[in-house]
Description:
This protein is of the alpha/beta class. 38% of the residues lie in helices and 19% in strands. The chain has two domains: 11-235, Spore Coat Polysaccharide Biosynthesis Protein SpsA, Chain A, CATH 3.90.550; 238-303.
Amino acid sequence: MQIVAGPDETLTVAIVHYNTPDLTARCLDSALRVLRAGLPGAFKIVVVDNRSENHNFEALRAAVAKLDAPEELVLIRNCINAGFGLGCMMALNHSAGRYIAFVNSDTQFDGDCFSPLIKHLEANPDIGVIGAQQLSAAGEPVRSFGFNESFLTRLKLRRKHDVSVVSRAPVDVDYLFGAFMLFRREAFAQCGGFDPTLFLFYEEMDVCQRLRAASWRVVFFPGAAYRHLGQGSVRAIPDTKPESDLSLFYVLRKNQGFWAWRLMALSKLVSYGLRAPFNARARLLLRRLVAMGPPQALSLRARETCNFDYVNR
């Protein structure tokens, strides 16, 4: 299928859904409201369902129908849970915008968070991805970007992100949090997009490292904001810490080399080992870490199965 952009098509908004129909419906309602005001006729929202339970998908489909946005909103369903990054990439089959925003399903918009970012991208052609100020569910500013992880940076005492001392002007950062990232399509394509090997976690750190390696800037823009309710889809998974460790090891091994991975794995082995005699969860994490093997060997992706009970129609 060939996607052809219309003359005014500027932005594609990609949202991955997994068993959170109510949150996703509220996200879509708020996004449609601000996009219709800020970018009328120049956007498309693509929602990718990542093999949710049938009743959750049907609930989402009913909510999408009530929004009555057939020209502005596309809902597609995967037969397998592809994970966050690959789910986002699948949305690009229906994308033609010059800019691509990846938005978590538990994100909501009180005002236009898109137009100011696009305006700044157009004024600064060397920026590959831009992000806005993240707010809590109560509307309080919270941390919106991160520092690249490594064994050495964990030895240093990094000052935690304090929104009161962050510059009011846009600032270059290591990576943006994945709840909301707005990419220049050219930059996203050049760096290869999200790595489909990652199932969950550290997708944003990985893609921002590759963008910066290709001389694209990664910028935090405090002049726009969104609300992030937090981990709506992840709550359905009992314990995500082992998957987080797997993803971190993989990103370090790929982007920083063998010893970066080995040193980080050793530091976690020591950390879990010191806490294991006193903490049941640390003992469990230690056992899983010892049995883990090479990065991604025991990823949740390997346990995903197709759903042949449902046919898109």
